[in-house]
Amino acid sequence: MRLIKSVGEWLDARLQLGSSIRETMEHPVPRETASWFYVFGSAAFVVFLLQIVTGIMLALIYVPSAGEAWNSLQTLNHNVALGWFIRGLHGWGSNFMVAIVLIHMVQVFLFGAYKYPRELTWIVGVLLLLVTLGMAFTGQVLRFDQDAYWGLGIGASIASRVPLVGPSIVNLMLGGPIIAGATLSRFFALHVFVVPGLLIAFVAVHLLMVLKLGINEWPMPGRVVRKATYIKDYHALTQKDGLPFVPGAIWKDLFFAAFILLSIAACAAYFGPFGPSGPPDPTIIQTAPRPDFFFLWLYAVLSLLPPSMETPALLIGPVVVILALLLLPFLFGEGEKSWRRRPIAVLTILLVAVALGTFTRLAGNAPWSPVMDAWSGVPIPPEFLHSRTALERQGALVFQVKQCHNCHSLDNQGGKRGPALDAVAVRLTQDQLIRQVIQGGGNMPAYGKNLSPAETTALVAFLETLHPAGQSPARDASRAVALGTEAGGPPTTDQ
Amino acid sequence: MTLPRGLTRRDFFMKLGILFNGIAASILAVPIVRYLLSPVTRERKAGYDSWIPLGNLEQFPSGETRLATYRNPVVNSWDGDTADIACWVRNVDGQTFQVFAINCAHLGCPVRWFPQSGLFMCPCHGGAYYQDGSRASGPPERGLFEYTYRIDGGKILIKAGEMPTPGQASNIVREIRPCV
Q1: How far is A169 from chain B (nearest CA, A)?
Q2: Which of A194, A470, B27, B158 has the fewest Cβ atoms within 10 angstroms?
Q3: Burial letters for A392-423: b for 16+ Cβ neighbours within 10 Å, e otherwise?
Q4: ipTM of this predicted complex?
Q5: How big is the A-B interface in CB pairs under 8 Å?
């Protein structure tokens, strides 16, 4: 014990850091900030440390070469003792880090922490969010599988839409004309050197400012921020009702950080690592690429935006959002901090959360994508075929063979790209069905060239049986009069 | 040598030192920037594209659309499978051909051909194209990207080498077909 003390004294005589560390640890913070709401920043930092450690461990085995990366991931998963667990920690750590950074951001936004004098702390925080997302995206690329390969293609296709310099940006991003070895190498350099370097620098500035300016006090309705008086008031608050950061506030940070680390370990152990999915061979086209969890909302947006809106939204949208975040502290640098007095702030968070949540959930089952194997793999439920005529059953066959099932569901099975057809006969008359099949429209391709008259007849006969029991199909009354018969007879093929 | 007032000899040398470092940084910046921009500038003069054989004509029967693969002309030894590129070859009538890029004109996912319904479908965002590559439905703003081809010695060759993207100069001819 005495040895440790004398070594410590020897070191401090030379480093002379002891007193400033002690001062930092014991600096007073407002009593109410020793709260469970104030633990997310430190937790994000601890997860970042975990990412550094596990990242270095993965780099001991991983080969950043387009030809070998996938194999080295397989080796990590299967041939290296606990390699799968380290990959799991790094992958789950990434998801936890993005989640905690987002929660931290929501918390400081709702607590008005971006207001005077902490504007720059907020701005660096926005940059930290961007580099964290940058780490998540580049990390997804290093898991060099099918999803990574086609994800890069999507990134390149988006970048190419920048006016004038788009194609040059694509070459720069890919390191050449195609997604290949140079692409992976430069994403490796970004993920391992460039972006973490920025992250460390930003974290240092962010933390320094938290220490210099003091942690944001617990917002009280009516306690209004004014530039003239704020700093004096804050110091009065910490003097009057403060407590030393260590141990007064830090024990909650420590508990939460440990809880998060154990949660990551539990997820890694229980769910295992992410992928890799199939090898990054672009000639294997039987694939349905999906982005990682935190980019799923973007995948939904890209599917749902009207085509003409897409390029402007992709190029202008991010700029607007980032600018809004950066300008926030300058536009609303004073005033009420408490969320109880800031209904627009609360509604904004709710709106963004509901929107992102909805898009993420939608992207989970991707109703806009055709189910590529529904025509061969998803049978028509038997109740749709019971006591049908030969022609109607022939039509059911056409329905399968012509891949209608890839986009249209029956009894909730099959694609969801087009409307469900369980009750289509109630909505469309025979003529309307024929026209829709042959000419398409409303986002449906025209099948006129690929259906013989006999096939169309059979298909429409089958579609006309699709109505709930007891509900009669739609009829064109004028036609019954013109033909002098009851409507609903065999369809004509003179289209 | 007369110095401006208030500027000491040491100040002057410090500023001169900063200037020297500025000059050194500018000189170093030229090769660094050229190195970084090499994917854009290096082979731009000749272009990345060259003629690549896809195989004998017999592999592509008349009236059918078949998958073909080729090794990209610009390649490094460590590229692995990523330099193998797929494309769709449509033999229209035994005389004329169409060669489509595998990449959807929306965001580059691999489109699949369904001969039964005569459609190309994209698994990502739901784009669909007719057999001649024109847009049928979904988010793409245009038809599939088409390679220039020629027939030589019983083989079909295409001009390829760069991943086609919506903003590329050779692809900017937009063909917005309304969904009928």
Answers
A1: 8
A2: A470
A3: bbbbbebbbebbbbbbbbbeeebbbbbebbbe
A4: 0.88
A5: 210
